[in-house]
Amino acid sequence: MAKKTAGYTSSGIANITSLHTFLPEFDKSVRLRPFMPLPNAVMGWGLKPTSQKARRLARRHALPYLSLEDGFLRSLGLGAHGYQPHSLVVDYSGIYYDASRPSDLENALNHTIFDESERTLAKHCMALLKRERLSKYNHAPDTPLESEPKANVLVVDQTKGDASINYGGATAESFNEMLERALEEHPHSTLWVKIHPDVIAGIKEGHLTRAIDHPRCRVISENLNPWALFDRVHTVYVVTSQLGFEALMAGKKVHCFGLPFYAGWGLTQDRLTCTRRRVKRQLDEVFAAAYLRYCRYANPYTGEPSTLVATIALIADQKRQKERLQGQWQACGFSLWKRGFVADFLGPGAEVDFQKTLPNAAHPTANRGATHLLVWSSRIDEAFKQRHRAHLDRLWRMEDGFIRSVGLGVDLTRPLSLVIDRQGIYYDPGQPSDLETLLNESVFTDAELERAATLRARLVALKLSKYNVPGTTSLELPEGAHAILVPGQVESDASIATGSPQVSTNSALLKAARAACPNAFIIYKAHPDVLTGARVGKLDKEASSLYDLDASQLDISALLECVDAVHTMSSLTGFEALLRGCQVTTYGLPFYAGWGLTNDAMRCPRRKRRLALNELVAGTLIRYPVYVDPHTRQLCNAETAVTLIEQARRKSTALGIKQRLYRYYRHFWVGSH
Prior knowledge:
By secondary structure, the protein is an alpha/beta fold. The chain folds into three domains: 5-111, no CATH class; 131-297, Rossmann fold (3-Layer(aba) Sandwich), CATH 3.40.50; 441-667, Rossmann fold, CATH 3.40.50. It is built from 25 helices and 25 strands. The protein has a seven-stranded mixed sheet with strand order 14-13-15-16-17-24-25. Strand 19 (521-525), helix 20 and strand 20 form a beta-alpha-beta unit. Helix 4 (104-111) crosses helix 11 (283-294) and helix 17 (446-462) runs parallel beside helix 24 (638-649). The protein starts with a strand and ends with a helix.
């Protein structure tokens, strides 16, 4: 069968990294050049001037023409700032903002019967967008508007040259008429008038600048999350802006002075009419047609197809971490290697200044402009706290996340996830941490718990762990044996000093496990960093005789599938065992202990809540860590990180020359100390 090709003439289309994913009906997409064979279809970007050449080519050769446009939920940031689209519109008839002729979206709304399941999904997605306060772009701050008791009406300007104005049947006069009508219909109200920031700055032209001097208008010129606007108003006036449809989702009354895609279906108060739009539609039907059927979704970091629900989750997680971490940071004491990625994990709203040390404690006002101080958590001991007592109120700790990478940190493998904690750190039960507080206090939504269940099942099915270091997978156990896995740890790690003060060595752990289960078949697995010689944690002679099988070279996921239980000090292996339904006994206080899911030798009185496993997973893997795609260096989320690890495992995992040299250095100069 001959391969189908879609051709384009615009260089901008070539920059869409997931273009092949958005166009599954074609085998490949190519930029058209002279003397090339004709494609099966031609595509261009909406109604922009750059699309005219492609349109002429399609007409001349009687080829199908596809109009492309950003979807209605595009990305965290702007394309101009390097953000690839999460959604794309592909229209074979027209384009949604051109009311002068039919589009695939309009045809669907005229003819489609939406079943109950699709309408239920539409309602669910609208509720998610409302809860997460997402819009087409999500870079603007979600800052509450100042109190203005009489200001409960919003009037939305658009910049001159916006194609949706002309193709939506409107003119510049439509904006003047809109403002006058809003003033007339709300004589006792002050109007919020949203004007693009570039208009106020003189970079672009708008239509409603006269509102600046009107006594009953309050101009909003800064970038602002649309939901912050909706919080203050009950009525919204637009010409063709998509913000009008988002206002409908927010439950507002919407007046349209042009013909956007959502006008003419009985949902809005319309100044214009479109005779082709012949039926009345409910909001969930218009949403289903526009967001579920018309838009196509792809994960720009993995390149794989996606869904609206997954896209909402991804952008919501990006937005949440961006807002949590925005501001000025002073990152202190980080190695040159870590400096290469630390700023990425603080997100696009952070400004980072790297320093060798913290400010002098003798001068507590020094560098107060840096709102937050950031330090790698293992450097913070009691002596450190005493030296820098003046700065503890703005000290944040950073540490590896729970789904870290394919490869070890000591081999300079760049992490996919880190945690950034303003209270403490997850492995230190001596004080609260953001994770502990989150697990103690958060109410997890049904959507989060569903994500957690799916993520947990996927981690188990893919046999993923923290480092995903390959090992042998064949294992035979005595028939009928009660098999216990005892995972070794790096004994110098702060997680043992703070989280397991009573049983603090691998040898002591093995002795405790054997004493607790004298007849069990005990399997011991040394920590990967200890095996490489980079870190300390070897067993003494007595402990070496207490286990029945050395599984240090075996894959941890394969082990967890075979054993009945895990005994650990504070190893993350205990958490990974919980994911797989194993019994877990802890001799310290790891982050997953004390919630009613483990058998614990110690207790933490602050942990007062009993958690279901999916609640623990939602807090630990979805909300708490920060995830970054190493290629784009942009924030992502847990599900994306899992896919990236899955993709990386298919490739060669051989160490590079720099990693081998660094391992040699660690083995001979660091490992014994």
